[in-house]
Specification:
- The chain has about 575 residues and is of the alpha/beta class.
- The protein folds into 3 domains: about 190 residues, Aspartate Aminotransferase, domain 1 (Alpha-Beta Complex), CATH 3.90.1150.10; about 90 residues, Histone, subunit A, CATH 1.10.20.110; about 260 residues, 3-Layer(aba) Sandwich (Aspartate Aminotransferase, domain 2), CATH 3.40.640.
- Helix content is about 45%, strand content about 10%.
- The protein contains 22 helices and 15 strands.
- The strands form 4 sheets. Strands 4, 5, 6, 7, 8, 9, 10 and 11 form an 8-stranded mixed β-sheet that branches. A 3-stranded antiparallel β-sheet has the order 12-15-14.
- The longest helix has 23 residues.
- The two termini are about 15 Å apart.
Length: about 575
Amino acid sequence: MDVLTLREYETLSPFEIKDFLAKAAQKAAKASSLAYLNAGRGNPNWIATTPREAFFLLGQFAITESKRVLDLPAGVGGMPKAPGIADRLEGWLRAHRDMPGAAFLEAMVPWAVKKFGFEPDAFVHELVDSIIGDNYPVPDRMLVHNEQVVHEYLQWAMCGTPRPTGTFKLYAVEGGTAAMCYIFKSMKSNRLLNPGDTIAPGVPIFTPYLEMPHLEDYDLNIVNVRAPQENRFQYTDEELKKLLDPKIKAFFLVNPGNPSAMAISEDTIKKIGAILKARPELILLTDDVYGTFVPGFRSLLGAFPRNTIGVYSYSKYFGCTGWRLGVIAVHEDNIFDRMIAQHPEAIQKKLDKRYGALTLEPRKIKFIDRIVADSRDIALNHTAGLSLPQQVMMTLFSLSELMDEKKAYQAACMGIVKKRVWATVEGLGIDIQPNPLFDDYYGLVDLEFWIRKYAGEDVVKWVKANIHPLDIVFRLAEDHGIVLLNGGGFEAPDWSVRVSFANLNDDVYDDIGRAVRAVTRGYYQAYQLATGKSAPAGMRAAALPKPTKAKATAKATTAKAKVRKGR
């Protein structure tokens, strides 16, 4: 694909470019003996089985409870009743001990009762009535027992040590994406962010955080705070100093990063803390979906609960992207309620009008409950957030991890992605050092960085002058049947690609590494053909492998390298 054509794709999200890449890769695979490998998806190829077994078995018990109340021949049942339901579940499980999930449910109920002080009938009835799905959510923000269970889970998954004091108020939502949309919407509605305001995304970052501020709905200015590869994807002092500018209202980040896969270090957290001392009303939004893949992970939510809106999704860790399970967390003692209360009277009257249908005292509505209301454009709060069966699944996922004292499930998940990372590294033929802050879920391969290291600055300059960065992902698709995402779409280096270590079988990742090496070597060979030069003495360009296909990649690249990239 020529450079001028590639320029047409520059405005697209990498997740939209992915569709074009997939078609090209599938075509290449069909036309040859290549395997079609889509490592551009973040969807894991494993699932958590134990909580799912419990869910489906609990559903069977719930049906018996419904029929106990009403059982008409036409298939009409009743609504489960709470009195004595815990004992009935215990007896039913004894009679069905050979069923998958029974052992977990038998242990789960007394464990939760002891851990949280639940009244057994109330807890079991919430699970049973909710899995039936015969009521609107009550309370509307999140079920009572589910919120307490998830709160404890988030303390483990996000907050680290020491645990923050006080309580987080939670809103169960349809995954991390819904959380983003609801938070943006409510911050605008409550004048925490206004058109023309400036926010600072910590880049590289998941693309919606780059795209949404520019929508007409929000019209926000952006000042990027960079975490460069040269600093192991930690924010530098110079970049963090940008947050001292009072024009910047909020700092948004994904931690661990997507696509960098690097968690923020304790040293970086301390530096952010110093900034908050100077700017106590700086808003922090942290998206911590991948935190469970980093041992001892500590989120900004745990470090700075008053300033932080936390987002978590169950999708990746439990292999449940289709369930759409996420949660928004806001501490009971937060800056958002105070900032809303300090609005001028003219704004307060507008907010009174906005939320007046919900309560006689709209000024007392907490920010977390405003997010709920705004997610449904006010009123009908009982239809907001997650369905009741989804909330049951969330409860079971959370409890399965909390009860796993040895963290065997976590170790297994970490082991899966780590194995794939090192297979890719072997295929790439590069030298990297292990990093305990790396979550191993994604990898960012910066071809500019590696070309500079192995072939020298002259080669880098020639490649950047003559080849479009998107050529990398299209060449991988067209020549190797492999789909990776372009790093530039995440505000990562233009010449980088994101690899997902979650969604393909272990044995293909060394092939992906070799394909990236082959593309890199093709660029080096194109440089040689165009200039008649070789790498400087001492450089290791020869270590780059020969292309894996007989196709003359270098000649094709040279023919296309007539026009400079356009941005």
